[in-house]
Specification:
globular; alpha/beta; AB_hydrolase_fold; 316 residues; hydrolase activity; 31% helix; Rossmann fold; single chain; Dienelactn_hydro
Length: 316
């Protein structure tokens, strides 16, 4: 584990209930699994032309190429970067995104930015601005439900053979990577993922299932530790498979040979540092975890140098 920072950062802490909610998620999932088994829920056939889940709980999609999109340059007079609004189709919906390209950018690498829950593309400005200053293009998207999730509701969709919203959000990230790579200023062969909080979970899964993605940076995120759930006769295996399919921990081995990077405040106010460390320990090399002093949940300026270094490694 890399130790890089000693400076202190500050942020108002969130409620202890929010932290406890994250800590207890594996237990809650286990209870839901037993409840599903008790009432005899059976998984029906899904729309296999659009998505599928393996017996091991690995989500996959058909190849995502040549995404139709519309765009409109909206660069401000006082901003040297190219700012471009885009809208593209993904899993039956139009997804809005903001592309930022460095001034005079030519054949530059690109980064898909997935904000945390409750954060819109317009609110997530600091990270794209940082990336542009480092010479990288980015696309930041408005995630469905603004990144909010409902695992229990998605389980019901999965059981009925309907695409869960979390699967759509992974597809959105992959479609965004395709759209970013299609920009004339961007090298479509050099695309990485960066996600914050919930967005980090989707970034990890998307990177795992698309081998052309160069690597992933997860900020203030973690997996769900579903492999710690005891599987017995009371557990419905279809429900268990679904919960495994939305757990980033289940995909870590698929990222190996590409770079897996985590940055996490040691006193994170929402996702405890020990949860990030647990996910990091499950990942395979090449990997690095940067513990950041402070309690900030999400991006901190103390992370800028590490992000710069790691992207240079990913795109070298």
């Amino acid at each position: 584990m890399s130790q890089k920072h000693t400076s202190k950062g500050k942020r108002k802490t969130e409620t202890e209930q929010q932290k406890m909610k994250v800590k207890l998620l594996p237990l809650a999932l286990g209870i839901l699994l037993m409840a599903a088994g008790a009432i005899g829920i059976m998984h029906s056939s899904n729309d296999s032309d659009q998505w599928s889940v393996s017996d091991g709980g690995i989500l996959s999609f058909p190849a995502i190429k040549n995404i139709d999109y519309s765009s409109n340059d909206i660069s401000a007079a006082n901003d040297a970067d190219i700012i471009r609004e885009v809208s593209f189709e993904s899993s039956g919906s139009q997804i809005a995104g903001l592309i930022r390209i460095p001034e005079s950018g030519t054949n530059v690498p690109g980064v898909v930015v997935l904000p945390g829950a409750g954060v819109s593309k317009e609110q997530q400005t600091t990270v794209p601005q940082l990336l542009s200053s480092l010479g990288y293009a980015s696309i930041t998207i408005d995630q469905r439900n603004l990144g909010g999730i409902n695992p229990q509701g998605d389980l019901a969709l999965y059981i009925n053979g309907t695409e869960p919203v979390e699967y759509m959000m992974v597809h959105d990230a992959l479609a965004a990577a395709n759209v970013l790579g299609e920009q004339p200023e961007v090298n479509g062969s050099d695309i990485a993922m960066l996600g914050l909080s919930n967005g980090g979970r989707f970034a990890i899964i998307a990177t795992a299932i698309e081998p052309e993605i160069k690597g992933v940076i997860g900020i203030s995120t973690s997996g769900y530790d579903t492999d710690s759930i005891e599987v017995n006769d009371n557990v419905n295996m279809n429900a268990y498979r679904f919960y495994r399919s939305i757990d980033p921990d289940n995909y870590l081995g698929m990222i190996s040979t590409r770079r897996f990077v985590m940055l996490h405040s040691v006193n994170d106010s929402i996702v405890p540092y020990e949860l990030a460390l647990r996910t990091y320990d499950k990942a395979e090399e090449p990997k690095v975890l940067y513990p950041i002093n402070g309690s900030t949940h999400g991006y901190s300026r103390l992370m800028a140098d590490d992000i710069q270094k790691e992207l240079e490694i990913m795109f070298q």
